[in-house]
Design brief:
This protein is an alpha+beta fold. Helices cover 16% and strands 42% of the residues. It is built from 2 helices and 8 strands. The radius of gyration is 15 Å and the shape is globular.
Length: 140
Amino acid sequence: MNQVNSSWLELNTHQPEDAISFYKKTLGWAFEPTDLPQGGAYWVARHNNKPVGGVFALNNTDPTQIPSHWMTYMHVSDINEATSSARKAGGEIIRPTMSLDGIGKLAIITDSTGALIGLIEPESPRKNTSVERPRNNFPH
């Protein structure tokens, strides 16, 4: 059985550079660009040099159809089993499994009602320097 902990946050946006600037100023995050296996732009967000989430560029999509949004990824122990189970339960694979070095394997599915949810199988602890949970770093 798969775990159900929230494990990764990802901003999907049509304006990644603007969003990156906002979160650098607002939360003090640093961003590292990385190449996706299928192509496309992605940045890993870091706080205190630990990964806290990502920014995915919504290229070739209509902003009126898919607005910028934050996506939650649920921790699973086996992403292949989880995506297969989702499909069998009436879900759909929206973004097939991809690997991000230092992070793990990620996929986006829908549940049987059409709601989007992300799945992540983090890299093994010896390869991944723990993912830090994002915090509210607003000045008081």
